[in-house]
Amino acid sequence: MTRRAVAGVARLLPVLLITGAAAVVLVAALIAACGGRSQEQSPQPTTTVTVTATPSGTASGAASPSATAAPGTTTLALYFLRSEKLGVADRRVGKTTMPATAAMRTLLAGPSSAERAAGLTTAIPRGTRLLGLSIDDGLAQVDLSREFGSGGGSLSMAARVAQVVYTLTRFRTVRAVEFLMEGAPIEALGGEGVLLDAPQRRAQWRDLEPNIFVEAPGVGAVISSPFTLHGTARVFEGSFLARLMDSSGRRVVQVVMQASRGAPGRGRFTREVPFSTSASRGTLIVFDRSMEDGSRQDEVQIPVLFAD
Questions:
Q1: Torsion of CA 251, 295, 229, 277, to 10 degrees
Q2: SS3 string of 197-241?
Q3: 111 and 138 housed in the same domain
Q4: Going by C-beta distance under 8 Å and a sequence separation of 6 or more, which residues neighbour residue 283?
Q5: Are 51 and 105 in contact (CB under 8 A)?
Q6: Do 63 and 135 lie in a common domain?
Q7: Residue 1, SS3?
Q8: Are the CB atoms for 51 and 122 separated by under 8 Å?
Q9: Cα-flanking dihedrals φ and ψ of residue 181, to 5°?
Q10: Cβ contact 278:261 at 8 Å
Q11: Is 160 left (phi over 0), alpha (psi -120 to 50) or beta?
Q12: Cα(118)–Cα(83) distance, integer angstroms
């Protein structure tokens, strides 16, 4: 090889090395992009989420007074208690790719001040931490700190389990929940004999549903016309009233709701409810009428915001 040819190769060598390095970096970036999906949304058979422990009893503040959910937020359905029965809150949090983990963290933190003002409480002990959450083939495995099993009687123990089960099974990817405490399976919770030796489903906790159980909208929901009213009910002939009021006490709309079954069975209901109002806030009131004197019974009031 001539000196001129050798010099030409020498001049090209750095360019070839740089181009090759860039190609390696590009391939690595593509591999990372394909393998870096949110674990909760991954189509892989097993989904494991490692979380930073978050204590309960540190609820966020009241819902924003704005009647429009901010862009880049996620709305979570959280199951708290109202008069020792389940009640739902719609909570807006920062946008997340792991909504089930976010829902558990937010649930453990307890109701906000606005939700407490609406009558919601929690049976989950203060200080309970989320240690881990995995979802595999419809089964959510939730690992909680030992505080989850402390304090309270049998009703409190059952209620806190139901809060977790209902919150997680609100996600379509979850059908049942398995409980761990400090990484170990739980056979019974506390000294009250609440058995948790098998995956828990909603059907096992139906007794904690109120007679009129509105799952949407929840407390603090931002609704627009028409909104979807759905849940379950156990009332005479499956019929009850739903009334939407504005903040000044004026009736916006009233509809008769019909569940798929009447008492003593529990039926499902769902209906699109159109309305028109210039108000920014209101209250959804659902109730049944007594067969004896016509008075209201099974009444539930749900504060809502009207979309701008």
A1: 0
A2: CCCECHHHHHHHCCCEEEEECCECEEECCCEEEEEEECCHHHEEE
A3: yes
A4: 244, 245, 247, 301, 302, 303, 304
A5: yes
A6: yes
A7: coil
A8: no
A9: -130, 120
A10: no
A11: alpha
A12: 11
What is the Cα–Cα distance from 100 to 167, expressed in whole angstroms?
A: 8
Same-domain check for residues 136 and 166: yes
Residue written as tokens 């504060």? Answer: 303
3-class DSSP state for residue 31? helix
Contact 284, 301 (CB under 8 A): yes
The DSSP symbol for 142 reads: E
**Pairing between strand 296-306 and 221-223?**
parallel
- Pairing relationship of beta strands 267-273 and 227-233 according to DSSP bridges: antiparallel
The radius of gyration of the chain from alpha carbons, rounded to an integer in Å, stands at 26
pLDDT in tens, the chain (308 residues): 444 443 443 443 343 333 444 433 333 433 333 333 334 533 333 333 434 333 444 333 333 333 445 568 899 999 999 999 999 999 999 999 999 999 999 999 999 999 999 999 999 999 999 999 999 999 999 999 999 999 888 999 999 999 999 999 999 999 999 999 999 999 999 776 799 999 999 999 999 999 999 999 999 999 999 999 999 999 999 999 999 999 999 999 999 999 999 999 999 999 999 999 999 999 999 999 998 999 999 999 999 999 98
Rounded Cα distance between 127 and 134, Å, is 21
285: Cβ contacts below 8 Å, ≥ 6 apart: 242, 243, 244, 245, 299, 300, 301, 302
Boundary residue ending a domain (140, 174, 208): 208
The boundaries of the domain holding residue 148 are: 47-208
